[in-house]
Amino acid sequence: MDTGLLIALLNPTIALALGAAFFVLWAHQRHRPYLAVLALSYCASAPGFLFQYFTLPIGMVLTKLVSNICFAIAGCCLSGAIVARYGRKVPYVAIAVLAGGGLASFCWFLFVAPDLTWRILAMNFAFGGLSLLVCAELRPVRNNGPTEKILFVLSLLSGLNFFVRTLIVVIAHGPFTSYDGFYGSSYWTTALLSHALLSLLIALCLFTAAALDVMKALKAETHTDPLSGLLNRRGFEERAAQLLRHCAVARFPVALVLADLDHFKALNDVHGHAAGDRVIADFAAKLRSATGARGAAGRIGGEEFAVLLPLSDLAAARLFAEAVRTLYSAGGIDGLPADTKVTASFGVAARSGEEALEPLMRRADEALYKAKKNGRDSVRLSYERPEALFVPEPSRAG
Questions:
Q1: Strand partners, 350
Q2: What sequence ranges are listed for the domain GGDEF (predicted)?
Q3: How far apart are CA 63 and CA 52, in angstroms?
């Protein structure tokens, strides 16, 4: 097998291997359709490269058209998948205009005014435009890990490769008048090698992004309570500790609200565990809606919940707790008799100084105990200061 054939088979082999890998990933993560689109992209590019080197029975001219249609499909799918992976709205119209314009120009210089050099420029400029479009879409992406920065750079390099490399080679060694000797030219060699390198780098980056997605999902599962959809105790403690650190640095006030469903065991005994689960889910939904994105809400026990509220003092946290208590006690629960009233008790404590989570929760729990002891369906506050802050001054002699 000669060197030219080896180089010609390099890209199809890489593309098929990457396409198969992305397909396997998608088969195990059906909720991430961008992986299937990536698989289609790489699989479509494989026949594109093969049909550049091998001629189909339909003739050389139509074979080149089929090859470039495959390239256009691959480019559109890759661009759309990368943009979709990072939560951006896929610019279908812009992608279609760039790919369609490239193919239309290619057809013009294939059938109407045959010119190999202009066909090369038309398709390379179209793919360069797609690469820079991806660049523009990734530029505003923030806090999504390192992969978007790497893909931004790779997309920029890919765009420069399609524009700058193509122009330099065509000016230096062109114009190309026919396919005789074309596949041994510097243009074709640099095109194959640069495409192989960029394809591998982009695919590795996307594999890393997919792995990070899996790790993030696993972490979310280990930190989330499946029934309520809130953070579990471990997740809440980690998130709350993080918020307390940030608020300490910024010197923002913080308050903690603990809530406990009243007579929950009796409700379970009378109406069954399925009804108890609905009660927990309903209360969690109201708590999550009231908390919003500003704080951390978690289910830290069977029927016990906690909310950490940054930028809230004791008065603001009391208003929050009273609002949730009133909203919850006034509403009914699906599946329970209309006359069944479900209530909750609340304990509220405001952070003092740089108080840690544990003593803050202990004070809020003491306030919650008072609410339960004094009739339930109420809010009680902790006016105590943490013991750690009461350090007596050393006595002075004389």
A1: 255
A2: 252-384
A3: 8
Is 70 exceeded by the pLDDT of residue 287?
yes
Q: What is the dihedral of CA 212, 218, 223, 226, to 10 degrees?
A: 140
**Helix (H/G/I), strand (E/B), else coil: 58:** coil
Could you tell me whether strands 379-382 and 296-299 are parallel, antiparallel, or unpaired per DSSP bridges? unpaired
Q: What is the pLDDT of residue 351?
A: 94
State the SS3 of 162-199. Answer: HHHHHHHHHHHHCCCCCCCCHHHCHHHHHHHHHHHHHH
Distance (Å) of CA 2 to CA 5, 6, 188:
6, 6, 16
Distance CA 285, CA 282 (A): 5
Model confidence pTM above 0.85: no
Helix, strand, coil percent content, the chain, rounded in steps of 5: 65, 10, 25
DSSP-H helix ranges across 29-91: 33-53, 60-85
Q: Could you give the CA distance from residue 154 to residue 202 in angstroms, rounded to a whole number?
A: 7
Query: What pLDDT sits at residue 218?
Result: 79
Residues 6+ apart with CB under 8 A from 172: 186
CA atoms within 13 A on the CB side of 165: 19
- CA-wise closest residue to 152 among 132, 172, 166: 132
